[in-house]
Amino acid sequence: MTGKTSEDVFAISSRRVEALTDGVFAIAMTLLVLDLKVDFGHLVGSGELWNQLYGIRDKFVTFVVSFMLLGSMWGVHARQFEYIKKTDRHLAWINNLRLLAVVFIPLTTSLAGNYNHLVIGRIMLPINFFVISALSRWEWTYATDPKHGLSAGLPRADVQYFSLRNRAIVIMALAVVVASAFVGDAAFLLFLAVPLLNKSSLLALERKIQRR
After folding, report:
1. Which of 42, 53, 56, 194 has the largest CB neighbor count within 10 A?
2. CA gyration radius for the chain?
């Protein structure tokens, strides 16, 4: 009878990590709405109400941006864990760091909504998303390393593609940080380019870079 290694002892089903992650994302996405306060006091007409609602337009836009990006990042996590079959203690802690960055989103969203006129107020939310993107790439890179034996069923070509896509998203997130200092939430429109990063174009770009 062979003894268990330390990694075997600490290996757990990835479903436990997914359950925790789903809960944290759900709570963070729900907390975002708490920053949208509509206690405008006594109003005598619809015109006054519309004026008050217009006054919180920046907060509403920031809320929508944060909610949609969190939803997208939850989707990335869900797709990754379709191929991650078990979790060791190192991957669990990388995932915890990823979730730590997620729970800061309501705070940085509030800063962006209330202090969008200040550069530091505009860039904190993009920095938060950049950190999440970087941790996502780190987690995927660790989990798909063959020596850890945590992923299965994904051809190496697809691993390479997803790794390149994750790298591109990190670079895009960094560009959003820089652009947000000048244009605020509009910088997040750069993420619309992500769906254009298809497999063939990324792999061709990687081969071109390697030839250089």
Report:
1. 56
2. 20
Q: Is the pTM of this model over 0.70?
A: yes
Q: Is 85 left (phi over 0), alpha (psi -120 to 50) or beta?
A: alpha
Closest among 135, 101, 121 to 185, alpha carbons compared: 121
DSSP annotation of 191 reads G
Q: What's the confidence (pLDDT) of residue 59?
A: 87
Residues shown for the chain: 212
> Is 6 exposed, middle or buried, given 0-12, 13-18 or 19+ CB atoms closer than 10 A?
exposed
Residues in the chain, pLDDT under 50: 1-4, 6, 9
Each domain of the chain, given as residue ranges in start order, spans 9-211
DSSP 105-165: HHHHHHHHHH-TTSHHHHHHHHHHHHHHHHHHHHHHHHHT-GGG--B-S--HHHHHHHHHH
